[in-house]
Fold this protein.
Amino acid sequence: MSSVHHQEQDQLIEKYGYDDHFHEHHEGDKFQFNFLTKYIFSMDHKIIARQFLFTGIFWAIIGSAMSIIFRLQLGFPDASIAWLKPLLGKWIVLNDAGVGTLEPEFYYALVTMHGTIIVFFVLTAGLSGTFSNFLIPLQIGARDMASPFLNMLSYWFFFLSSVVMFYSLFLSTGPFSGGWTAYPPLSALPQASIGSGAGMTLWLVSLALFVVSVLLGGMNYITTVLNLRTKGMSLWRMPLTIWAFLVTAIIGLLSFPVLFSGFLLLIFDRSMGTSFYLSDIFVNGMALDRIGGSPILYQHIFWFLGHPEVYIIILPAMGIVSEVLSVHARKPIFGYRAMVYSILAIAFLSFIVWAHHMFMSGVNPFLSNFFVVFTLIIAVPSAVKVFNWISTLYGGNIRLNTPMLFCIGFISMFISGGLTGIFLGNSAIDIQQHDTYFVVAHFHIVMGVAAFFGMFAGVYNWFPKMFGRYMNDTLGKIHFWVTLIGAYAIFGPMHFLGMAGVPRRYYLFDKFDAFSGFDTMNKFITIAAIISFFAQIVFVINFFWSMYKGKRVTSQNPYGSNSLEWTTPIDAGHGNWPGKIPTVQRWSYDYGKDGIEFTQQHVPLREGETPSDH
Amino acid sequence: MPFVQIFNKELAPNKAQALRFALWIGMATIVMFFAAITSAYLVRKPAGNWYEFKLPIQFFYSTIIIFSSSLFLELCYRSLKGKNESKYKLYLLLAFLTGIGFVISQIFAFKNMVNQGLFIDLNVSVSFIFVIAGMHILHILGGLIAYLISITIAFTTLFKIDELRILKFDLLRQYWHFIGILWIYLLVFLILQ
């Protein structure tokens, strides 16, 4: 498909590229002596990216399997799940008739772990870790990250954090069960619930390690993007993926230290007897002597990270979608600069809306007004992005392959979930909707499913660059359609549950007459969840099968894409380019310009051609 | 300067400068961390149940110590640039030792507080002092590890000065000044509060 032949491409790099003498002193190659240093303790960003991806997939399977178990409880509370006893052991209680039911305590642990795992381990580390690592050096024309060593540490801190969290699943008292937000006092007092003891301690250790991983990674991403871009790659010529990863890393670096400070105070409350978050608490009818603290303080600190965190999750997905959409619509992205400005606006606004998570926590209603206004203003840059994606599609020569389908699915999800955000952003409407399934439906669609769709689009699109083979397109399409319909079938009905006031996190609804009419709907949701889960198994099989048996990539630039990663050899080694580094002569969205299907970034301007990035 | 690289794309990337830039970003995260803790302090204080007490006098001694440590390090940096080996080694050791002196003075400050009955779990106001000063000491310890690396290099390798060596030393210098200033900020914050 590539209209520029390989040799021609290499000649261009040889002619216009610049020589950084990388391969003369082999500075990077000395780290790759054997299997251990090449694949395990690797400092190559492409390997580290794959490590993040594999670990992310591992956690995604565990996290979503957990949701299936608690969905079984919600949809079929009377059915026996004794068949899960070999897996869950004492958390399934058998009665005399042999009917197995889930322990309520473990139900809470499952809900908590599902949230923690998906938010942090899959959609932060798995998404940002994978694609920032993989694409930043390749797309800006760098040999590797600014500090490959810190980059390696970033992965291994994540790995360590994963090990600690995984270990906590097997504690005899179970993992932490007080909700993924870990509000005190449930999280601060070991006697509060069985999961608040050792489970919570490990949860805190794990997340502290995770913060270190994010900070090390983010430091590298920002430094690399701002300092190591190849000649000619001005900021306004960068692909939108890079803009998104850059801003994501900045948000992460500004918000994760704040979360860490909140965790630190929590650790002191748990182990040193301080009362930062504790006051007026009764345990078993006895007043606790810990006074003077404020649980609301924790909520402020937590959500100061927590809200930017949802943009840490969605921005990389947006960047991937912008890039993939443009490539497969064979059109330049519509409103490139508007896209960048809206990323920046979203990033800025993300820091001044955190209290919208706390409208019902006793925050002053006058203060809430401020947060309502800024929350609703986020709709503006978000809408700009949505309109630009749709305009990019309009009149495009669209290839409906799997990555493109997932991009379109992303836009659909982002619109559906974004609209319900307008409801929840109003503090008055929130009085009715807070802590109901309406909230669950909203954030799952807008940042859960949507971010997953962005991630899938990225995996399907860059799989050939990662492994030199294609994923199976038919299986990919099956995966897409089942997931799209499945996701709407799961979360669509939840809006109705929420509007009726059905609260989230409840184990059973048999004591509430008001919610008794929703049995069928809950069954329907559970069945849809199970079907969607199996569609993800199709993806996993496709992924690993294609790694070894997929169709081989035969051309350097299979999609006819403009960005620099497709100028590297099919199986790029350490240092990414065998000879010189390409220099950049134009922006990355010259699709269909002057009647030419695509012009790669390292191709010099033709005679009389005006550059598009001005 | 690293900023040149960001906007002028006629230049080829400079990896050494990137390290300095990475350090600045690292310092930004530290600023965010302490900003969060001190904001928590500000939010918590007006809520009442706040035990007032005097800061231990050792905190002021340690301020003088950290200031002199920064001064020695600056002299050391000048000697390195001026290729004066013996002065460079002397000042490096002095800066390192005053750095350890800072930690010791802080330990005495904590002892002083405990002797007055100001235990960490007495009141949130006391807890905050322990957390803030304690976290600052951890950052000082990080700096001291960097000193050890620097000293090892100074005393085991040839005194050959090139730009990369000055740049790497500059990383230590900037970080050390930064946590010194951070301490002064924290102290002024605690005094004003």
User: Anything to note?
Assistant: Chain B has six helices and no strands.
